[in-house]
Each structure stands twice: as structure tokens, then as C-alpha cells.
Amino acid sequence: MMPTIIDKPIKVMLVAGEHSGDILGAGLIKRLKERYPNATFSGIGGPRMLAEGFQSYYPMSKLSVFGLFEVIKHLPELLGIRKHLKKIIISENPDVFIGIDAPDFNLKLERELYKKGIKTVHYVSPTVWAWRPKRIKKLIGSLNALLCIFPFEETYFKDTAVPAYFIGHPLADKHQHPINTQAARQSLGLHSEQPVLTIMPGSRLGELERHSFLFLQTAYNCSNNISGLKILVPMPDQVVADKFEEYYRASGLTLDLEIKVRATTEMIAAANMVLVASGTATLEVMLFKKPMVVAYKLSALTAWVIKTFDLLKAPFVSMPNLIAGKELVKEYLQDDIKVATLTEELVSFYQDKDKTQTIVNEFNKMKIKLTRQADIQAANIVSGVINGDVSF
């Protein structure tokens, strides 16, 4: 059903802090423009949002700072940007402000704008269910709506004063009818019956530093157990790809390995099994219904802080396990990561077809649960906030 078109000019201001937020913002803007053809969109966003007619006051890269101690180094600049942006937003007095993820930047901004009478929406729940649960206090009395992309998040907030709504996950919509294994292999020039292991050591340079040798050694051991094994390595950009190439050369290992930029979809779809660092990538692998093993190492200092202050509250770190509420996927963290164990798990998926089918069936159930036309759902709630008819 087509949404009702409202001709009045409205102002929508948004802040996205990284690549994934830019994707969410662009999808939301596109759907809001269908309802409000005379709307203007501004704030901070990336190339996809800009392509939808968005005006960005700062490059999104200014907010794309990761890691506990990396943020501290950039804190004065980030605080200055937020202070200046707040002045702009208050002077513009938009019909709604939408903070997309980036909770450390957006939550305080939303709270201050809400107190000024500006309607606010936060898109993507902060991981209060996983760590730093006291942040839930920052959500209460700060928002007209919290858009949750996982079903367990709406449940988590059910008995609180946070107006949370599960809208589904945009990636599930994107991969509702994904490329199949044979088509993916054909596009990559692979033989249809060749065994394939895809390794995804991370998209950030720090992750590559911590994971590359472990993942490469595991791939080498798997190759010794599976004849003719092809190793695929999808990378988000050339900088990261070149760095991984350096680690591969330094490893001294010889593998039938291919590194490719912006081929994540094809390389996951082509795989028999996947070794993946924790993060959104685990969700993508799940949506393609590929058996996986998850391994992740934090920097020594960050790991010490989290352990010392007991900051991690979630029982799992990978998206499939969090969504299922149980261990479907094997997770290995920090010193528990052993090449022999990773190898054994991955090889078992190739050799045990019943084991693989069991996990594929579970992934299919979760995929159905997440596929809800998230962009449209998000636009419905934002429109309700603008019109004052979202109830909680």
C-alpha cells in the first residue's frame, strides 16, 4: 500500500557516524521522500545519504572513530562538532531529529534536543543489553521512538520507559532473495564443485593486525584436510585489501587464495563455510545461510578494561547467537582462539552434511523473523512521530 503523500514542507535532520549508518539513513530518507516530497534533509551523513539529496555539515568520516582509546584522542574535535551541530539544529527547529547509531555522539545530543521540544528518534538500539547497561538511563526521557533492528531488543525494553519498536533489519530485506552458490561461483570464475572457505578477518586495520595470521594459519590447516580448497577473502576497500596482502606475504604460507574488494556478497554466497570476525559480518553470513565459526580478539588494553570493570553483560557476541538466544554458532574469543580448534570446526561443516543442514535450517527461521521491510517500517514510525500519532 502506498503511503499518504503530505505536501507540506518539513525539515528532517539526521546524524550517521559510519558506513552502516549511512546505508540506514539513505534507505530511510528514500522512504520519507515518498511521503514528504517537499522535505529537506540535513545533518551529518555519508555518500549514500548525499545521493538522496542530503546536506551534510561535516564529513561523516569525522565521526568514524572506533575503539576506546582512539575516541579519547579525537574527543575535543568530536565535542566541538556536537556543540556546533546542536546550535544549528536548534536554530533550524526541525520536525524531527534522527540519530543513527553512533550512541556516544547521538544520545547526549538527542537528550538536549528533546528537552528543547524537538522530537527525536534513535535508529539502532545501543547495545545496553551487552555492555554498559546503565546507558539505558540516557534513553529514558530523551526519545519519541527507538528503532530496534533485532527482535530481542524490543523485548529487552518492554518493561522500561523506552519507546522501542522492532522494525526488522535492512540487510535481511536486501538479501531476501540472495545470489545462489552456483551463480556466485560462476561470477568469481570458480568450479561449481570446488570446496570453498571464505575468511573474513575484519574491515578495520586493527582487526587485521590481530586476526590475519590466525585466520591464514587456519585456512592453511583446512587446506591440508580438504583437497583443492579455495580461500576467498572479501575486503571493503583497497587500503584494507593491501594490508591483508602484506600479512599474507609475511606469513610465508602458500594457499589457493583470492582477495577481492567489494565482493562480499559473492564470496559469502560461494562458500561452503566461513571463518568470520564478530560483527555485522556474522549477520550477513547468517542471512546467506552459511555455516560459520566466529573468532575475535580485542586489543590487549581494551580487553583488560572490559574484563577488569565487568563491562560485557551479553552471553554471546555473534548476531546469530544473540538473535537465537542460544549457541548456534561456535564463538572463540581472546586466548580461547586456537588454530587447531577453528580448523576442526570448519572441516566438520564440510564433512558432516547433516550438521550443516541443521544450522542452515535455524538460520532460515531467523532470516524470516528479520525480514520486515525495515526502511518502510522506520519511515512509518518517524512519520508517526512527526504527526504526533506514535503511541507508547
TrEMBL record:
The EC number(s) this enzyme carries: 2.4.1.182
Recorded superkingdom: Bacteria
Keywords, ordered alphabetically: Glycosyltransferase, Lipid A biosynthesis, Lipid biosynthesis, Lipid metabolism, Transferase
GO cellular component term, pick one: membrane
UniProt cross-references to InterPro entries, sorted A to Z: Glyco_trans_19 (IPR003835)
Pathway this chain belongs to: Bacterial outer membrane biogenesis; LPS lipid A biosynthesis
GO biological process: lipid A biosynthetic process
GO MF annotations, alphabetized: lipid-A-disaccharide synthase activity; phospholipid binding
Keyword Transferase: yes
PANTHER family, per the entry: LIPID-A-DISACCHARIDE SYNTHASE, LIPID-A-DISACCHARIDE SYNTHASE, MITOCHONDRIAL-RELATED
Protein's job: Condensation of UDP-2,3-diacylglucosamine and 2,3-diacylglucosamine-1-phosphate to form lipid A disaccharide, a precursor of lipid A, a phosphorylated glycolipid that anchors the lipopolysaccharide to the outer membrane of the cell.
Annotated family: Belongs to the LpxB family.
Protein name: Lipid-A-disaccharide synthase
Organism: Cycloclasticus pugetii
Species lineage: Bacteria, Pseudomonadati, Pseudomonadota, Gammaproteobacteria, Thiotrichales
Gene that this sequence comes from: lpxB
